Each structure stands twice: as C-alpha cells, then as structure tokens.
Amino acid sequence: MGAYIIRRLLLIIPTLLGIMIINFALTQFVPGGPIEQVLADMKGEGDAFASISGGAGDVAAELDSAGGNSEYIGARGLPPEFIADLERQFGLDKPPLEQFLHMMWNYVRFDFGESYFKSEGVLDLVWERMPVSISLGLWATLISYMVSIPLGIRKAVRDGSRFDTWTSGVIIVAYAIPSFLFAIMLLVLFAGGSYWQIFPLRGLTSANFDELSLLGKIADYAWHIALPVLAMTISSFATLTLLTKNSFLDEIRKQYVVTARAKGLSEHRVLYGHVFRNAMLIVIAGFPSLFLSVFFSGSLIIETLFSLDGLGRLGFQAALQRDYPVIFGTMFFFGLIGLVVGILSDLMYIFVDPRIDFEKRDA
Fold it and tell me: Strand, helix or coil at 43?
C-alpha cells in the first residue's frame, strides 16, 4: 500500500502542473485583464467588460487618442509611463513564459502573492473567508449523509411499499427545485421577506457574538447558518438516498445474506453486521470528494443571496476583476487539496473494506 500512495503523491506534480499550464494559457487569450480593470475604475465604469464590449470605431478612437501605440482600450489621455508602471507592478511586463515560471516557483514555496485590488495576501483572503465555506460545505454534507443513509436503508428494506413510493416522490421533487429558488423562498418566508422575521438576513454570526456564552455562541451560529445550509442540502438527498437504497438492494439479494438469515441471525444483525459494510463502500468512500465539491463549487449563489463572504464570492469577484494572484493562487491551493482528497478517497475504501488492495489491482 505504501508504494501505491507514493506513486499517487508523485502523480500530483505533473497533474497540478498541467492544470496550471492550461488555465494560464487560457488567460492569455481571454479579453480584458487587470490593467483594463484599473483603467475602467479610473474612468468610473467599474467594469472592464464595459469598455471591451464597445464597437470597432470606439476602439480605434481610443487607441488613436492614446497615441496609436497602446494595447489597452480605455487608456485615452494617460501617459505611456503610467501604463508601463502598472505593468511592472502587476508583473505583466515580462514574457508569458517567464511570468508562469516565476509564479510556479513562488507557489512551490507557498508564496501566493498579494491581490491586485485588495492589498492583502492571497492566503490571508482565503483564511478570512474559509469559515463561511467550511460551515456551509461541512454541515450540508453531514446533514445529507445523516438523512440519506438511514432513509436509503429504510427504503431498501421496504422496497415497493407505500413508504418507498412517497419518499421517492418527495426527494425527487426536492432534487428538481433549484437551490437558489429554494433559498429565495426561505428568505421570503422566514427572513423578513413578506411573512416572518425568524432568521437573520446576513452574516455567519451576530455583532455581539464575542460577548455571548458558549451555548449562546452555538445557538447564534446555528441560527445564522440554518437557512443557507438547508438551501444547499435540499437537492442533495435524492442522489445519495437512491444510491444507498440500490446498494443495499444489491447486497440483500446475494447468497451470503440468505445464508446468514438461514442461520437464524436477526434482521438487524444481518443488515448492520453483514450488509452495511459492503453496501456502504461506495457511499462512505465518496464522502471526501462530495464534501470538496460542496465546499468549493456549491456555495456561490447561496453566499450571494445570504450575504455571506465566502470562497465562492471571492473567486467570482477575482474572475470579474481579473485578479490573477487570487485566481491562480486559489486554483493551485485548491487543486492540490483536491488531488490529496482523491488519495484520501482511495484510503477510505480500504478503511471501509480492508479486502481492497490497490497495489494488486495495479499489478
């Protein structure tokens, strides 16, 4: 097993390098950049896309007004020295290959630089917003497992019954509801929209959080995350529940279960002593990757609706502003975490079922 883990760890290097090369190359062809964003802010537009979307005649006029030799739309009236100074500050005065090699050398030393527009280190920005994303991702994943696994087992045991039918209908309807639409409904109903003011509209904690007792802090934290976590979780029950049910059904029909029942074992012992470990292999082993997907990709709209300043909003704002240190720094950091989580998922398989041997499979 040790040799397999070492091989997987060594594969992280070329995989991560490939991810960074592809995304860095894409940014060289995408219109707009940090210089355009600065120029748009100076002109009061606030968005580089506004100037990029102008017609060909407007572009020609801009370039002509800037002296005919500026590559930046919106540089009208600005001295070339100012533009050159911006390029030096952002490190864009070097050839793309040199920029990439310099960036990767810094990342190997875990030096992710500073944001172009926030005057803060990338790691500091990520660390400030990590509690929000961890709260949403962790609790949404845990609640999904805590509800879906028992429900899936119950549905497998009572396959074809009325309970199985109506619960399937409920979770499929919940799956069909977009999370953002359900979040808006929760806001309207329970956060002062048109009906009841029960839950807060924004933030992860109250302003007086530090003054509360331990129980008060726990209650305040739960009060704030209840609606966003519910909005993120509602559509995740169907897949996990049906996966659990089908896994149990496949195992229940196997010969060893018939043999265990013939020996006189109780139904509880058969289900949880024999069937559970085999049926839950694919479900439990997928926990790290499921948490990672919820953690990084499922919270942008929810964070925006509930005014939570998390990693989803940070990445979205960085993409709009072309804040390259934040984009590439977080991409490297989270890509590394994702690859490590892939290894942890394999180890989880072995933990659930020690009979699995990845080294023999590779051989």
Answer: coil
Q: In which residue ranges of the chain is CATH 1.10.3720.10 found?
A: 123-362
The pLDDT tens digits along the chain (363 residues) read: 677 788 888 888 899 899 899 988 888 777 777 777 777 766 655 544 444 444 433 433 444 444 444 555 555 556 777 777 777 777 777 888 888 998 889 888 888 888 888 878 888 888 888 888 888 888 888 888 889 888 988 898 888 899 999 999 999 998 888 888 888 888 888 887 667 878 887 777 888 888 888 888 888 888 888 888 888 888 888 888 888 888 888 888 888 888 888 888 887 788 877 787 777 777 776 666 666 666 665 567 888 888 888 887 888 888 888 888 888 888 888 788 778 877 877 777 777 666 666 666 555
Q: Which residues of 289-328 are buried (b: 16+ CB within 10 A; e: fewer)?
A: ebbbbbbbebbbbbbbbbebbbbbbbbeebeebbbbbbbb
The CATH number assigned to the domain with range 123-362 reads 1.10.3720.10
